[in-house]
Write a structure and sequence with these properties.
six-stranded mixed beta sheet, alpha+beta, single chain, 8 strands, 182 residues, 60s Ribosomal Protein L30, Chain: A, flat, 28% strand, two-stranded antiparallel ribbon
């Protein structure tokens, strides 16, 4: 995506994460019937492959961003996002603007944000009941993620665009630590 996709960070806790690729909205969990041992059937809940692949892409892009923290942020965090989609053929004419064009169709902004937030939030742990083991697992589980829980996140603007001519799809995610008194 050319100059548009650059990584930047500063000392006050601001990251600009760029993840190239077609943005994927958080899909609803799906269910399938699995036959276990003894032929007993049960329902298994899963997240679609496309959603999981997009979340891995976002997390990888975040971890490669200059200034990405070694430990997850505690406290309030503000997230803003711009999602860029491939232009449809009808917007590829000479009379079409060369810059980005606002997209007012699906996927919904809230589902796009949900996929990004889930990518940057550590997965839930199954506790064993042993306090020492559970605490060690919790600390290990936090490694590599941006914040401790998505409840810390306050949303800023979320915009959807068709990419400028000559640019590919992707997202630009701006994440900032919110100062205590704000």
């Amino acid at each position: 995506m050319g100059e548009l996709f650059t990584a930047e960070a500063n000392a006050v806790g601001r990251l600009v994460i760029t993840a190239p690729g077609l943005p994927v909205a958080q899909a609803r969990h799906r269910d399938r019937v699995i036959h276990g041992k003894g032929g007993r059937a049960f329902v298994q809940r899963y997240t679609p492959k496309e959603t999981m692949a997009w979340r891995r892409n976002v997390l990888l892009a975040a971890r490669q961003t200059s200034g990405y923290p070694n430990e997850p942020w505690a406290g309030a965090v503000r997230l803003s996002m711009e999602a860029f989609f491939e232009r449809p053929q009808r917007l590829m004419t000479r009379s079409s603007p060369a810059g980005a064009i606002r997209k007012n169709t699906k996927p919904d902004s809230d589902n796009l944000v949900k996929a990004v937030m889930d990518a940057l939030t550590p997965p839930k742990l199954k506790l064993t009941g042993n306090q020492a083991i559970d605490e060690a697992a919790r600390l290990e589980n936090l490694r590599g993620y941006l914040w401790i829980d998505d409840g810390q996140v306050h949303l800023g603007p979320v915009d959807r665009w068709y990419a400028a001519m000559g640019c590919g799809p992707g997202v630009i995610i701006t994440v900032e630590r919110v100062p205590e008194g704000e």
